Amino acid sequence: MWKNGFKWMYLILGTMIGAGYASGRELWQFFGPESGLAILLFTILFSICTYVVMNISYEQKSEHFLPVLHKLIGNKLSNVYDMIIIFYLFTTTMVMLAGGGAAIEMFHIPYWIGIFIFSCLLITLFIWNIKGMTSLNSVIIPLLIVGLIGTIITFMMKNQESLKPELWTNQSNWPSAFTFTALNVIALIAVVGAIGKEIKHKGESLIASIGSAVILGGIAYFYNESLLQVSQEIVLYEIPLFAILKDYPYSMIIFMTVLLWTAIFTTAASGIFGLTSRFRQYSNWPTWVLATVIVVIMIPLTKFGFSTLVAVLYPLYGLINLYLVAAILVYPIANYYKWE
């Protein structure tokens, strides 16, 4: 149970700690000043949402996210959210492809060749389907977490003022907890909805939900506090993390760039996983063939920028999915006797 619980926790973290989160762009978009309470609320909300979605997925033995949506919001609305999730997965994965190609450019590899390499690695991963995903995340995510935490702690030690406790009397940004949770719920349902058949025990849901929420919330809080110390300089950077790294050795910047690339890769892999699991019922093709078709469709559209996606689409998705968050939170109450 514990082993599988941690396996699902890494899968969830691999989905959540994508390029937007790891780069700091997503956190800065939703949080910023007076956000300690917002991040605490997000941690609690995300833990509850993860546990509920995993339990529904387990009960339904689902292989894609549509049965989970049916249980949460009924057949009619689930058709609407089905399209929203598909569009979300497609657009985010498309931009991750672009980000993957752009990241490789720093090694003097042409942009389109970088996208080709990135795409080939993605397709290769899906030869092993879900085993490939979980194996990848169990290796990459701990490294990414350690790298982020190490960078943040080192920065905070250099800037002692950031270690001062936050004044919790002024927490005007607390509503952002709901929109940030709503944004992340889309990917959560898409990925967790595809593993219901693989979950063996309800205890796995508890381990994965609490573990992932605490790690995400903890990193978000200290990351946000660090970004506050360089808030005047963030506007100069496409990736806020580089504002923190500006005084670090070049080797450290290279190391964190590689970690960011892996975060981009895990986000793209989670998006492809959600899409292939959704469309598998319409085709007998192997998963890697479906992944190839999806990636080939995406490649011509990779000209859209990463920061544009985060600034425009992410808040929009967050608002649209507030209803979905409400449905998830109400579900255990409405089905109390069934869950006993």
Structure commentary:
There is one protein chain. With 340 residues, this protein is mostly helical. The longest helix has 39 residues, at 66-104. The chain has 15 helices and no strands. It is globular and about 50 Å long. The protein starts with a helix and ends with a helix. The mean pLDDT is 83. It has helices at residues 2-16, 19-23, 25-30, 36-60, 66-104, 111-125, 129-158, 176-192, 202-229, 241-244, 250-279, 287-298, 306-320, 322-334, 336-339.
How do the strands and helices of this protein lay out in sequence?
Layout: H1 2-16, H2 19-23, H3 25-30, H4 36-60, H5 66-104, H6 111-125, H7 129-158, H8 176-192, H9 202-229, H10 241-244, H11 250-279, H12 287-298, H13 306-320, H14 322-334, H15 336-339
Q: How big a fraction of the residues is strand?
A: under 5%
Average pLDDT score: 83
Q: Helical percent range?
A: over 70%
Largest sheet: none
| Series of H and E elements | HHHHHHHHHHHHHHH
Span of the ends, CA to CA: 20 Å
Structural class: mainly alpha
- Low confidence ranges: none
Overall spatial form: globular
Number of helices: 15
Quick structural overview:
Helices cover 76% and strands 0% of the residues. By secondary structure, the chain is mainly α.
List the keywords.
mainly alpha; 340 residues; single chain; 15 helices
